[in-house]
């Protein structure tokens, strides 16, 4: 599997108190652990099991992810922004890898 | 009272007679706009085409699936476009070259290119598609081996290159070399019934286009969105993979990818979508 690549989309700027939409997508096979290869051996589970989004250190959204989630998980959620700052996104892989992305927003 | 009951009964019988024998579901009337670029999803068919209007398979899909394709951020196929961009710029092989070493910025040099394939390959004296063109470059210029069919990198790079033609109308130049005779052969194959189920391509995609086949809505079977992100596989599906899948479903022996049969079919099927926008990576169910 190629290294998972996170993608994040949110506005570059917003007015104070505005509710913005945040979209995230990460490339990942989300191998469920239920499938078998051509030789009949179980393909070990490897999924992203946790996703979280922080804004200036405070959690905005987080969730646990289970094996039934399909490949390339996509999350869309909204947040109210009061001040300029940085959104930090974190995906945790079963193998312990952590994939991160950051995006700043300017509040006028 | 008796009289009016009889009229009701007659009305019900009439309604039953008017019901079609097969479920008909017309394609939606909706516009596909990707990143402010409007796609041609319906256009007048070229001369000699069995349909009056050629239509993109996008029009035959569920609202949720259509929406996925319309937003280039949500479209999972765009992940493969990004992966393809990395491969494009990656130096590989004994010659120390990447695709970009010769072709520079794909956004410039590959713009619109995918809309005009397959082309005629004068060296091999047969049609060449994007996948084979990549292989030709790898073997002749990069000192590498050709990709195995449907190698993950072959699909990603093909998707990336065809995506540079997003929105461009499909147009083949059949006057190149002997491309016309391959078109003829492809047409013959399109109408030839095969397999235990005795189906030709045309049995589903022409005679029953717009109808349901079990829970699946039959489109015209256009090639303009390939490689396509198929939700069923959660992966990119190449055109030749789809051809083989369709032929397998008729319970016939299926030809090898890039074989003469399937290259002829690619020429003909691509031509049937003349004028439609390249939608790579399209999203299908």
Mean pLDDT of chain A: 94
| C-alpha-based Rg of chain B, rounded | 21 Å
CATH level-1 class of chain A: Mainly Beta
Q: What share of residues of chain B is helical?
A: 25-40%
CATH architecture of chain B: Orthogonal Bundle
Topology order of chain A in helix (H) and strand (E) letters: EEEEEEEE
Organism (chain A): Nitratireductor pacificus pht-3B
Protein name (chain A): Sulfur oxidation protein
List keywords for this structure.
heterodimer, A: mainly beta, Immunoglobulin-like, five-stranded mixed beta sheet, three-stranded antiparallel beta sheet, elongated, B: 285 residues, Cytochrome Bc1 Complex, Chain D, domain 2, two-stranded antiparallel sheet, 11 helices, 10% strand, globular
Fold topology:
The complex is a heterodimer of chains A (108) and B (285).
Chain A: E1 6-9, E2 13-14, E3 18-26, E4 48-55, E5 58-64, E6 74-81, E7 85-93, E8 98-107
Parallel strand pairs in A: 2-8
Antiparallel strand pairs in A: 1-3, 3-6, 4-5, 4-7, 7-8
Chain B: H1 2-18, E1 33-34, E2 37-38, E3 42-44, E4 53-55, H2 63-70, H3 77-89, H4 99-103, H5 106-109, E5 119-121, E6 126-128, H6 130-140, H7 152-163, H8 179-190, H9 201-205, E7 212-213, E8 216-217, E9 228-230, E10 235-237, H10 239-249, H11 260-272, E11 282-284
Parallel strand pairs in B: 9-11
Antiparallel strand pairs in B: 1-2, 3-4, 5-6, 7-8, 9-10
Structure description:
The complex is a heterodimer of chains A (108) and B (285). Chain A is an all-beta fold and 108 residues long. Helices cover 0% and strands 53% of the residues of chain A. In chain A, the strands form two sheets. A five-stranded mixed β-sheet of chain A has the order 2-8-7-4-5, with no helix packed on it. In chain A, strands 1-3-6 form a three-stranded antiparallel β-sheet, with no helix packed on it. In chain A, β4 (48-55) and β5 (58-64) form a beta hairpin. Chain B is of the alpha+beta class and 285 residues long. Chain B has a single domain (32-105, 116-285), classed as Cytochrome Bc1 Complex, Chain D, domain 2 (Orthogonal Bundle). Chain B contains eleven helices and eleven strands. A three-stranded mixed β-sheet of chain B has the order 10-9-11. Chain B has a two-stranded antiparallel sheet with strand order 1-2. The radius of gyration of chain B is 21 Å and the shape is globular. The A-B interface holds A 2, 5, 7, 9, 23, 25, 27, 70-72, 74 and B 73-74, 76, 78-79, 82-83, 152, 234-235.
